[in-house]
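Preliminary data (for renewal application), protoporphyrin IX containing FE complex.
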Amino acid sequence: MDGFLGTRGSFMLDFVFAAMLATVPLLVVSRYLVRRASYQMHRRMQMALSVILFVAIIGFELEMRIYGWRQRAVDSPFWMDGAMNDWIDGSLILHLCFAIPTPFLWGFVLYQAMRKFPKPPGPSDHSASHRFWGRIAMLALTLTAVTGVVFYWLAFAAAG
Ligand code: HEM
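Predicted structure:
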């Protein structure tokens, strides 16, 4: 099914692209909430974001396994038949370096936070570890989003 962004992207490609773009400012807001000691809002926001990203990943993976993406990228000026060293494949490999480990890291931070913080959430013995891994998880998700946007543009948006 065609997407809604007016590019060559499918519905799920566009959905994940839009979700990734929205994620980065949401992470900034979520950190700001912690700074203002609004821990409950931070918790809700991180859990909502996790559910949305989880649904997006499942839908996206199913679509990619069934239909693939290459037939939508052949009209890109960066497409090279049979090549694996062009910009499109290079950007995809870089994107996957972040996209594959990030959900595991994210799930680990979320699970530990839900298990170890008091209810309602607030500073505790778990704070130092959570701040450390939470920052790494947010950085990893941001890099997943940025590299994903570059791949999307090269494969599905660029026209020439
Ligand atoms: C994957 C999901 C999550 C990520 C990536 C994340 C990330 C972060 C980060 C980066 C900070 C430190 C902000 C800063 O000062 O720089 C933080 C603080 C905090 N988070 Fe999360 N968080 C997540 C989920 C949760 C959940 C589910 C809870 C509650 C159950 C929670 C409770 C807290 C609390 C209480 C703090 C303040 C810790 C302190 O400074 O004492 N977080 N989080």
